[in-house]
Amino acid sequence: MAVKQLLAAVAVVAALGGCTRVGKDYTSRMEARQQDYAAAAGTPVNNFHYFSLWSWEPLSNQQLAVYTRSNEAWLLDLDGSCRNLEFTNHISLTSSASEVSVKFDRVLTGPGDAPCFIKQIRPVDLKKLNAPQEGKPREVEEAPRPAK
User: Superkingdom, according to UniProt (predicted)?
Assistant: First the structure.
């Protein structure tokens, strides 16, 4: 019986170790993506034209990129922490007369969640954002298979 308990404990520790590594990988990917967007973002603007949300990418609970067209993106910094932004399946933006404005409009993540006010808006230069990825070899992590 003690051997089974020991094996179970070893399995739990190994699983938790794997989760920690996955968490670190996720965090480093998110930080790299934040840096990519920050480098491609222009000077702050007060508002942007908004007819529909083409796509969006959460960068943290305080920042996200929204695409209003396939070739037009905006980096939004939010006032405070936007609960569930990194994990929600949908968002919406408030707007007035087809304009999303700083300190007035909000990001909505779902029913029951508090709205997140937009603190800053910066246009994203998509050519600059995608430039580092072009011609760059894809990183692949290699590891030998365990022996059976």
Answer: Bacteria
